[in-house]
Structure formats: C-alpha cells, structure tokens
What we know:
By secondary structure, the chain is mainly alpha-helical.
Amino acid sequence: MLIAIAVSLPGLSQQPPTLNSTITTGLFYFTLFNASIYLHLILFLVCYCSQRAVKTALWCNFLVFSLKFGVWLASSSHVMLAEVVHSVADFANQALLAYGLSSSRRAPDAIHPYGYSKERFVWSLISAVGIFCLGSGATVVNGVQNLWIAQPPENMKYAALVICGSFVIEGASLIVAIQAVKKGAAAEGMKLRDYIWRGHDPTSVAVMTEDGAAVTGLVIAGASLVAVNVTGNAIYDPIGSIVVGNLLGMVAIFLIQRNRHALIGRAMDDHDMEKVLQFLKKDPVVDSLYDCKSEVIGPGFFRFKAEIDFNGEMVVQNYLKRTGREEWARQFREAAKQKDDTAMMKIMSNYGEEVVTALGSEVDRLEKEIQNLVPGIRHVDIEAHNPPTETTLSSESFQ
C-alpha cells in the first residue's frame, strides 16, 4: 500500500533518489518494516480500545505516515525523513497506548489482587522511551550526518502539499485530544495545566502532547523547506531534521517523567486526601489517626490506608444501641448473684467477642463511607492502632 502511494507520485517512475548514508538506508527499511507491523497491530487493537482520542490519533498518524513516506522517497529531503520517523514514533506510541488501555482493564486475579490498572503507565513509559530512541535519536543523528553533505531536496511542491495536508489531519487529531484532556480535567475538578502535569490518566495527555509536537514539527519542516527554496542553501534541510529530533526528545522526557512518578507510587490529590481525613476525624468512633497513606493504583483509582485509635466507649455504645443493653445487664446481674465464676467468665467472653465483632462492623462502615466519599478509592485498609505501652517501650529500648 505504501509503495503504491509512493510510486504513484510523479517523478518516482524515474531513477530513485540516491541515499547519502548508511543510517538513511537503515531507516528506510526499518520504517517500511515497522509500517507493515503497525498496520496489522492497529487493526487488532482498535477493536479493543474505546478511547476516542487514541483511536483518532492512531488512524491520523497512519494516514500522515503514508503520505510523508511517499514524499520522502520523491524528494530525498532530510527534514521529511525526520517527519517520517516522527510519524512512525507517534504511530508506535499510539499502538502501545491502545494496548495499555486494553490490558489495564483486565480483572484482578490471585497474582495481581489490585488489578492491572498500572499497566497503562508501563506501556506509556515504554512508548516514551521508544520516542526518545527512535524518534529523537535517529532523527538528530541523520540531520547531523548530513549537515556537511546536504543536497537540495527534489520535488518540494509535493512535500509542501503533504505538509499542508498533514497539518490539517494532525490538527484534527489534536483537537480531539485536547477535548479529551479537558473532559478529564473537569471530571477530576482540576485546572487544565494541573491535569497535564498531575492528572491520573496519562493516555489522553500523551496523545495531546504528541499531536502538539506533530503539528509543531510540521511547521518546522515547512519552514525548513521554505528556507531552502528561498535561499538556495540546502543546510536548512538537515537543520530542520535536528530541530524536529530535539522536539521529540523534549516530549519523550516529559512523558517519561510523568509515567515514572505514577509507577513509583504517587499519592492521590491533596484535596481528596484532606476530604477523607476530615471525615474520619469527625466520626465519633475515631479518637485519632496515625500513618495515613494513599497511592494511585491506576488512572483515577486509589488505595487508602490508615491506623485508627478507636474510641472504645463509643464503639460499645453503638453496639448496645443496636442490640439492646438490657439483656446484657440482666445476664451480668444473674451471674453476679449466683457468684458463679464460670458463668461470669462465659458471659464476659461472649460480650468481648461481640464487642470485637462490633469493632469490625465499624471498620466496614468507615470503609464503605470513605469509598462513597471518594469513588476513586477502590481499596481501603483500616487497622486498629496499638499505642505503645510501658512494656513495649522498655522492650524497644533494650533492643
């Protein structure tokens, strides 16, 4: 398909352009090989990926790549080669994001009891590293190698047409991605700038960032070809390639940092954390809180953990209100009248067991109310805090 597009362009039926270096030849075959793989991959992945931004970016990148590839063969322009590699990197990245989206939706199992939500971060990180190595590294090296042997590109009118068409296509994809990011920011109650840097879903942000870089790269490529045409100096062509490579490098570094923070284990937003803590502090059965922590386990999903010093008196009162205190009082009075230690011990054991069960019920209640308060909290771990006693302190100091 790609070769047919390239051959159909005027000028290609003649002798093919001369490749100026080993890396250019390698990139040619690498690009063609990847295009075949990615075409089959996209047909598979789109069936499982429902996010509009990723699907739009995938198809747009494939179309733009096909056009750029044909024009690069016709023009032998270094900046167009940079744009071809840019599109391959973008296409590969969107495919990896789509796979991450599909994989992250798998249900929890015995090996991964908290689910696979973080898989999205893993594949986003892998795609960012790919952009840095393939997109940025190869493009910069190609540009530097051709600084001193630059030749004026051929058939620049076709390159100009493809740049204009690609700008429209990539711009449409960018608009869809921006809408997805705005929707995500509104859903989390965050400003757009804060969501780009600290939002829970890296997928739409990655798509928007890459589409923005693609549009900027097309502007750079167009400016390079205009400079070559106006001045007659071919050096602006490899310079454009180097600038595009550096642009991809900056995008890759941003995405690597963002996903690195998510994989290390980032806390949920201060606003949501404070909301949970204030709720717990106001609950009558809670005396004090210790070691409260949270962690993002997936885009918009969290785990919350806290140690609580419970108010035993309130726990008992709530239990007696539910079950009736009169029956327990009667049993204790009868055992006291009979002066039967065995009967008294049995009643006390039963009462203690019921109080422990009541404490478990209070924990369950708090966990459900926390999840209702912040729906993104999927797992709540509440432990009873054991304050240090004199025996514990003396034992620790001895050690």
